[in-house]
């Protein structure tokens, strides 16, 4: 895949929509990799005790998966200058083979100076958005 | 219990030096299912213009969490960590994190407020090399659900 060039990119261009399946095993793996061992992400009993519907995914895992839509498109992840999200709804991950399905789409919202583009992202789980104000600044060639 | 607002503006000492290992980058990339070769293959990273393999854009959360821990663990703050979820997160990269980096992170409490029964703790972590080269600025808000006064927490819109 050839990385997009700033000159060839237009505001409104869509990034390829990607669907991510998140299982309990993925949460355990992410906990170990990130060092975030908050039990709401792996212990159903604990999650319910603190008033959550079930185990929920790390917001940071959802953020990382959404970020892949940007880096897969840009080619070089080092081109991401800035990336931020708000976590607006939890991604509830049931204890089964399928887990939760998160669908992420993105578009070029603005072309800025110095070959920088602003990408806005939308992440959906069970028909509702789970990230708000999700955007990244990416420097293209 | 509401959070101690006198923490606003407080800066915490830098974390212990943490060396970014190439296998830690690979482990993190695997955990987010990202097969990009610049996380694993030095030649691919060099071809992309980097001196060594680089880390995914959200890898810096590892350093930010270590810095946040110093704030959260302070009993005077009054944060009930069992009620905490992540409200928002932003990374501003001054350059990519790469294998071999010797990093430290310093936490700053930027804001504390209560809204709809929840406590909001906004923290910044300045991640630099031991020599002081800026690498990444992390900004995060943690939300302690239902810990502020008055008690009832909105179940809708609970973040992750």
UniProtKB/TrEMBL annotation, chain A:
Stored SUPFAM superfamilies: Thioesterase/thiol ester dehydrase-isomerase
Domain of life per record: Bacteria
Occurrences of domain MaoC-like (ranges): 18-114
InterPro entries, sorted: Fatty_acid_synthase (IPR003965), HotDog_dom_sf (IPR029069), MaoC-like_dom (IPR002539)
Matching CDD domains: SAV4209_like
Matching Pfam families: MaoC_dehydratas (PF01575)
Coiled coil: none
Similarity section: Belongs to the enoyl-CoA hydratase/isomerase family.
Protein name (Swiss-Prot/TrEMBL): MaoC like domain-containing protein
Species, as recorded: Streptoalloteichus tenebrarius (strain ATCC 17920 / DSM 40477 / JCM 4838 / CBS 697.72 / NBRC 16177 / NCIMB 11028 / NRRL B-12390 / A12253. 1 / ISP 5477) (Streptomyces tenebrarius)
Automatic annotation (TrEMBL), chain B:
InterPro entries linked to this entry: FAS1-like_DH_region, HadA-like, HotDog_dom_sf, UPF0336/Enoyl-CoA_hydratase
Residue ranges of every copy of the FAS1-like dehydratase domain listed in the record: 6-137
Pfam family, one: FAS1_DH_region
Gene3D superfamilies: Hotdog Thioesterase
Family: Belongs to the UPF0336 family.
PANTHER family assigned: HYDROXYACYL-THIOESTER DEHYDRATASE TYPE 2, MITOCHONDRIAL, HYDROXYACYL-THIOESTER DEHYDRATASE TYPE 2, MITOCHONDRIAL-RELATED
Entry protein name: UPF0336 protein LX15_004084
Species per Swiss-Prot/TrEMBL record: Streptoalloteichus tenebrarius (strain ATCC 17920 / DSM 40477 / JCM 4838 / CBS 697.72 / NBRC 16177 / NCIMB 11028 / NRRL B-12390 / A12253. 1 / ISP 5477) (Streptomyces tenebrarius)
Lineage, opening ranks: Bacteria, Bacillati, Actinomycetota, Actinomycetes, Pseudonocardiales
